[in-house]
Structure to design on (134 residues):
């Protein structure tokens, strides 16, 4: 997966269609989420598409999230969100201003409201997970 800053730089030079393609490609780079983990318990509420997020704890205590969506662009959005927190400790995740990290991508103006309405819920779920493990 690219770094958030590398992705931001590239994103800034792209037109709207290429930004969609970039998000779709980013979603394809997510680790495979096994079907049995796609349950009601891992479903992110409030998203127009189905989005599942499942945390795993690494030996060093950092959190690694598996995620998937039944919509390619939405899968790219969750991949973008995860770039801000992936493989970090719960304390680091809680200290991260995810919204500020995503602000340069201007998703609310780049994508339809249907595609972005679930982003706050994705972020809330990630923060709640970090709080449980902190």
């Amino acid at each position: 997966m690219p770094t958030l800053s590398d992705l931001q730089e590239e994103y800034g030079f792209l037109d709207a269609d290429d930004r969609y393609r970039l998000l779709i490609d980013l979603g394809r780079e997510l680790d495979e989420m096994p079907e049995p983990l796609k349950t009601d318990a891992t479903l992110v509420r409030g998203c127009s598409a189905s989005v599942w997020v499942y945390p795993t704890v690494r030996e060093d205590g950092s959190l690694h999230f598996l995620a998937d969506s039944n919509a390619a662009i939405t899968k790219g959005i969750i991949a973008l969100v995860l770039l801000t927190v992936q493989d970090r400790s719960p304390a680091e995740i809680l200290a991260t201003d995810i919204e500020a990290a995503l602000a340069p991508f201007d998703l609310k103006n780049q994508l339809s409201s249907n595609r972005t309405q679930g982003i706050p819920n994705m972020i809330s779920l990630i923060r709640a997970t970090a709080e449980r493990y902190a």
Observations:
- The chain has one domain: 4-133.
